[in-house]
């Protein structure tokens, strides 16, 4: 289980800091797009987003077009909280995109939810969803209109504005101009009234795959989202590739020479285990990492248990390789992190037990190997070790299926600040002492990379080794609140009538069904 359950300080006393109101590490987002005349595209996107919920749980949104109108509906919350049948039924069309958001640039506000939307100056409208993080956001923001303080503060909105603000060019021509201006990590799906577009940065940091439906095409962050809508995996969108899909078919253009630097942390934690990356299942990679870990860090023990759920495959691999039996010693309370009800003080004091509960009869008297995917701040593991001892464990040996996370990510994952990362200041023995384990070991970086079967130069592993493959600007020009910090908000277009924006909107009943549809709603909100 990823660390970060506690609040901001790794050193806080365990009993007051293990409040499971914060999850981490947090991914930047999930994106999904579909072009499929004759299909109920809004519902396809809904289910696609459902499969990508793990990539972003702050906000969800869908844009659809019926060839005349682009309709956007987005809201803070989980996919199932944001959408219901009546909303989806009021979003007709043949092309659609969707987005699940965790904020990595710009705060968690309705305005920053995606898809972002702009009128494209005489060429209809653009809706866009983005997974990743740009590194030259501040520079790009100066190129777009920033007058409207009600606007969004995300790198994604900057991209949408750049695409929309080229009246002499088609969207495809605008993309050919704009994509080379973007630095950093981006997997994009965007659309106008007729066409679905997709693009990936030249390093392919964040995943993006192409799938085929009987009557159309799908692009998605992960193959698991293709599976849920019955799409056949065709291939990954290549680093530096741009796709356009419409009635004229699928057009592909390589807008930049690929320089692959896929995110290593996708294998550790971010991607679903049933997703394929580079032709290999993430589950198989994680099991292999567990085997490597068992060879690199053996220990005498009675039972291997995973920290559910992300520690599961590596625990299986560790057990297989070591010959130590595998068992389920912790039960995850799956839905507790998905409520918006703030826990009362009494509940908060229960700390980690809100999320995990020990199975005492499995643990009592045992020397345990506890396999987890990563340690970020250390609060979770400290609480976990204490809980396992209270449940009767004789020894607790912690094994981590990633190397120590020492540096922050600037390409779309929000771990914590450098100062909050426990491995930034402490060595392994000091971390062991801090979390109270009998022993602690991490898999080596080379061991993890070998398990992925991807060549080391083709992976970003900056959070582990500090080697950032995409140049970073000065410290004050990067970070989640870079646009807020300079008082920049990307202009949200206003409608003289004060009504919903976008192409001409739904009329009558549809308008009532969609009380917060379109960018115009941003202007009406406080
Ligand atoms: S810094 Fe870490 S989390 Fe960020 S892209 Fe690189 S490997 Fe992935």
SSE topology:
Elements: H1 14-17, E1 26-27, E2 29-35, H2 41-51, E3 59-65, E4 70-76, H3 79-82, H4 85-89, E5 95-101, E6 116-119, E7 125-131, H5 137-141, H6 155-164, H7 171-178, E8 187-191, E9 196-200, E10 209-213, E11 216-220, H8 223-228, E12 232-236, E13 241-246, E14 249-254, E15 262-263, H9 265-270, E16 276-277, E17 280-281, H10 282-296, E18 303-306, H11 312-322, E19 330-332, H12 345-348, E20 356-358, H13 360-363, E21 367-372, H14 379-390, E22 395-400, E23 413-414, H15 422-425, H16 428-435, E24 439-442, H17 445-452, E25 459-460, H18 462-465, H19 482-485, H20 509-513, H21 520-524
Parallel strand pairs: 15-25, 18-21, 21-22, 22-24
Antiparallel strand pairs: 1-23, 2-5, 2-11, 3-4, 3-5, 6-7, 7-8, 8-9, 9-13, 10-11, 10-12, 13-14, 16-17, 19-20
Describe this structure in words.
The protein contains 21 helices and 25 strands. It has two domains: 299 residues, 4-Layer Sandwich (Glutamine Phosphoribosylpyrophosphate, subunit 1, domain 1), CATH 3.60.20; 178 residues, Rossmann fold (3-Layer(aba) Sandwich), CATH 3.40.50. It is globular. The two termini are 37 Å apart. A hairpin with a 2-residue loop joins strand 10 and strand 11. With 526 residues, it is α+β, with helices and mostly antiparallel strands. Helix 6 packs across helix 7, helix 10 crosses helix 11 and helix 10 packs antiparallel against helix 17. The N terminus and C terminus are likely disordered. The structure holds iron/sulfur cluster.
